[in-house]
Write a structure and sequence with these properties.
Strand order of the largest sheet: 3-2-1-4-5-6-7
Helix content: 40-55%
Shape: globular
Structural class: alpha/beta
Strand content: 5-15%
CATH architecture: 3-Layer(aba) Sandwich
């Protein structure tokens, strides 16, 4: 059966999309909390490689030279702000500073976080408060601050960092588990309302990654084996294996992806 003129036009329009660089972040501006070290640094460099300029609010360190060199090497601009993200009202100040420096913002990656390991019955209230404050409250306040900007400009991407503990109970990390379940819920709630403004809100749920935070677990022979036996891929991920998904969710290629918790886990959750 011959195609109608309307069908042909639709197909041609779809094919035209592939003439675009759907994964390009050229001239976009991304705020990446805690983007100076670890996985946050990896996200910053990956987005810079895709063409974005980077603004990094980070706390307690001014050792920025390494990250600056890595981003500027890729021909992109990076600026830093030494700030405690848990302080009241600071999220609005961070967003305002980013707009002052770059003129606009397009992407937020809520990467900053922490973990406290203790059996439940040995957990301390102050540890609970610290973890919930940085892992969940900061995500809320930063997301709210950029949402106001994104809603006005009718575009934007918010990428939260979840965990395997967004789906499971875990061991010896009740505050972290609770915070990451909260991140999943926050992601869906924000996506539900901000979608009307052409703002996409998603989360990355990393599996077991080789980082400083996971070094103690990898050093425990039995626990390490228990984890590896459950991962179909058979290995802990290198940090670089998370970077492609960050670029994807930040890019036009993910314009119709909203409210999704994307596990990057080597298949861990299927077992």
């Amino acid at each position: 059966m011959e195609q109608s003129i309307e069908e042909i036009k639709k197909n041609e329009a779809a094919l035209d999309l592939f003439k675009m660089d759907l994964f390009s972040l050229k001239d976009k501006v991304a705020i990446i909390t805690g983007g100076n070290t670890g996985l946050g640094q990896g996200y910053a460099v990956a987005l810079a490689e895709a063409g974005a300029d980077i603004f990094i609010p980070t706390f307690g360190t001014r050792e920025w030279d390494e990250t600056r060199k890595m981003i500027e090497k890729r021909g992109r601009r990076v600026e830093f702000m030494d700030v405690d993200l848990t302080q009241k009202g600071i999220a609005d100040k961070v967003v305002k500073k980013a707009v002052e420096l770059f003129g606009h913002i397009d992407i937020l990656i809520n990467n900053a976080g922490m973990i406290k390991r203790n059996p439940l019955l040995e957990s301390k209230d102050e540890d609970w408060d610290k973890v919930i404050n940085i892992n969940l409250n900061t995500v809320y306040h930063m997301s709210m601050a950029v949402a106001k900007v994104f809603a006005k400009q009718k575009s934007g991407k918010i990428i939260n960092i979840g965990s395997m503990l967004s789906f499971q109970g875990g061991k010896f990390i009740p505050s972290y588990t609770t915070s990451k379940h909260g991140v999943a819920g926050l992601t869906k709630a924000f996506a539900s309302e901000l979608g009307a403004y052409n703002v996409q809100v998603n989360a990355i749920a990393p599996g077991y990654i080789k980082t400083a935070n996971t070094a103690p677990i990898r050093a425990q022979k039995d626990r390490n084996k228990e984890i590896l036996d459950r991962i179909p891929a058979g290995h802990w991920a290198e940090p670089s294996e998370l970077m492609g998904v960050a670029v994807f969710l930040a890019s036009p290629a993910a314009n119709y992806v909203n409210g999704h918790i994307l596990a990057v886990d080597g298949g861990y959750l299927v077992r």
